[in-house]
TrEMBL record:
Enzyme Commission number(s): 4.1.1.5
Lineage, top ranks: Bacteria, Bacillati, Actinomycetota, Actinomycetes, Propionibacteriales
Swiss-Prot/TrEMBL keywords: Acetoin biosynthesis, Decarboxylase, Lyase
Matching Pfam families: AAL_decarboxy, Abhydrolase_6
A single BP term in Gene Ontology: acetoin biosynthetic process
SUPFAM superfamilies linked: AF0104/ALDC/Ptd012-like, alpha/beta-Hydrolases
AB hydrolase-1 domain: residues covered: 289-514
Name the UniProt record assigns to this protein: Alpha-acetolactate decarboxylase
Residue stretches spanning the membrane: none
């Protein structure tokens, strides 16, 4: 907005916007100095924290752009804005025109100006569309509005369901999202491509909503295949962030609700008036990251993150636990073998200033090893991981019926192992990702020594060591066995979690975001 714009000018601009919104027209004029700007109301971090009520109306939002996405108060469905018209996408897959008086807790909009168009060949998958866009954009540092218009042979969507106070964090609110699948449908995918450095502020990577041609169905896009279509790209080099203004939101923007993280120690800081954004790559201190994989995985799973840690100037060592390397015999291995392996590898290399990191089940060998390595550690990080309690095995943390099924599977196997199923990969580890990627992961995983899950640790909690501890949580994590597991584990540490986008396997699907999470102070 120009500094010379008068109140009368602003009123006329608002009136033009509302008339266009009511009629569906997209010819609203806007200031030239805003043409390359993305305007965003609130932050993704606030939404992850459960801040679902905002005071920005759709009418006000549309004065800042004619294209965008977001959600509505109470997390009541998804929002998509096309050609100056705002649509409300609900959990049953339906879509309707939003009212100008509707409120939003989070939204991002821009004035869409087509810079590049790309024809989409028939049969192009989601991954191939993303590759076409990545190849076409001139710089990965900018924000890009993405519009894919055409006919889709298949498209899978999901939509968040309306929540009621007291609001759960987004990781819990999205656990029961309804999914819809459309076939042979014409419509538009609309959203943004955002750089990883905006993690916590926006949604890094690609965030696309679908709206059909009749403007009656849609949702958040999970996967799709294009029958025929065209990609339009609009670049933006400026970013305008409007922070939450309502009193109920401002004190929770940077902190998890105390009831969720179960930490009275955090409550005093939750109510601080000023929250500080902590950027991921700070300081010049060089650390050695020792990376412990989760169940069924080996050191290969950490390679994308390890490479980025090295690019940031650190050292990284990705371990493979005994029994999980190609050709290993897993028979008879106990949990203590994994603990001893971590200790031996660190001591053999005489490592110091070690950041010990574990994913998923890896929290068990991490906790056991940390007590022997305390003098060598500068930090301990649980990444979407189990945080063991003394005397409780990994199976003790699972729902009883599922734990009983796993025990039966272990005892029935010839080598006393637990092998993953494709259903576990699809529903718990990598939900929402293309099936081809899920299949690749499934075929790469190996059976886990059963005693790794049956044995418990007899050591105090890692917080007794006096070493800094952090918890990095994947925003869409379904891989910890039960819906409230993450809350319990984080509560045992008494820390504020660092949330990164992606499923349980975000170390593979979003290694940039996980790396930034590990490097946070």
């Amino acid at each position: 907005m120009s500094t010379t714009e008068t109140a009368s000018d602003r009123f006329r601009r608002w009136a033009r916007t509302m008339l266009a919104h009511r009629s569906g027209a997209g010819d609203v004029q806007h200031s030239a100095d805003r043409a390359r700007e993305v305007y965003q109301s609130s932050t993704m971090g606030a939404l992850l924290d459960g801040v679902y009520d905002g005071d920005v109306t759709i009418a006000e939002l549309l004065t800042h752009g004619d294209f965008g996405l977001g959600t509505f108060n109470h997390l009541d469905g998804e929002m998509v804005i096309l050609d100056g018209t705002c649509y409300h996408l609900r959990s049953d897959g339906s879509a309707s025109l939003a009212a100008g008086t509707d409120l939003t807790p989070f939204a991002a909009v821009t004035w869409f100006t087509t810079d590049t168009t790309i024809p989409v060949p028939s049969g192009t998958s989601r991954a191939e569309v993303i590759a076409l866009i990545d190849e076409a954009i001139p710089s990965k540092n900018l924000i890009y509005g993405i519009r894919v218009t055409g006919t889709f042979s298949t498209i899978k969507t999901r939509t968040v369901m309306e929540q009621r106070p007291p609001y759960p964090p987004l990781t819990q609110a999205t656990a029961g999202q309804a999914e819809s699948e459309f076939s042979g449908v014409a419509g538009t995918l609309a959203g943004f491509r955002t750089h990883e450095y905006e993690q916590g502020i926006s949604v890094p990577g690609y965030h696309l909503q679908f709206l059909d041609e009749a403007r009656t169905r849609g949702g958040h896009s999970l996967d799709f295949r294009v029958e025929q279509g065209e990609i339009a790209i609009s670049a933006a080099s400026e970013f305008h962030l409007s922070l939450p203004r309502s009193g109920s939101s401002s004190t929770r923007t940077c902190r998890r609700p105390t009831s969720w993280i179960r930490s009275t120690k955090q409550k005093a800081t939750e109510d601080q008036a000023v929250c500080r954004q902590r950027w991921p790559l700070g300081g010049s201190r060089v650390s050695t990251f020792v990376l412990i994989p989760g169940a069924w995985h080996a050191g290969w799973a950490w390679r994308p993150v390890a490479r980025r840690l090295r690019d940031a100037g650190h050292q990284a060592l990705a371990l493979t636990m005994p029994g999980l390397a190609d050709g290993d015999d897993p028979t008879g291995l106990r949990l203590q073998a994994a603990v001893d392996h971590v200790v031996a590898e660190v001591e053999r290399r005489d490592l110091a200033d070690v950041v010990l990191v574990a994913h998923s089940w890896g929290g068990y060998p991490l906790t056991g090893a940390a007590h022997s390595l305390a003098e060598r550690l500068s930090k301990v990080v649980y990444y979407s991981a189990f945080v063991p309690a003394r005397g409780r095995s990994a199976l003790d943390e699972l729902p009883p019926e599922f734990a009983a099924t796993v025990r039966t599977a272990i005892r029935s196997s010839s080598d006393w192992t637990w092998a993953p199923t494709f259903e576990i990969v699809q529903r718990a580890l990598m939900q929402g990702e293309p099936e081809q990627l899920q299949r690749f992961l499934f075929e790469t995983l190996v059976p886990q020594p059963g005693n790794y899950h049956l044995d418990a640790l007899d050591v105090p909690e890692v917080t007794s060591l006096g070493v800094p501890v952090a918890y990095v949580l994947s925003a869409d994590d379904h891989g910890l066995g039960r819906p409230d597991a993450a809350a319990d584990f984080i509560g045992r540490l008494g820390v504020e979690p660092i949330v990164v986008p992606g499923p349980h396997e975000s170390l593979l699907t979003n290694p940039e975001g996980v790396t930034h999470g590990l490097l946070r102070d």
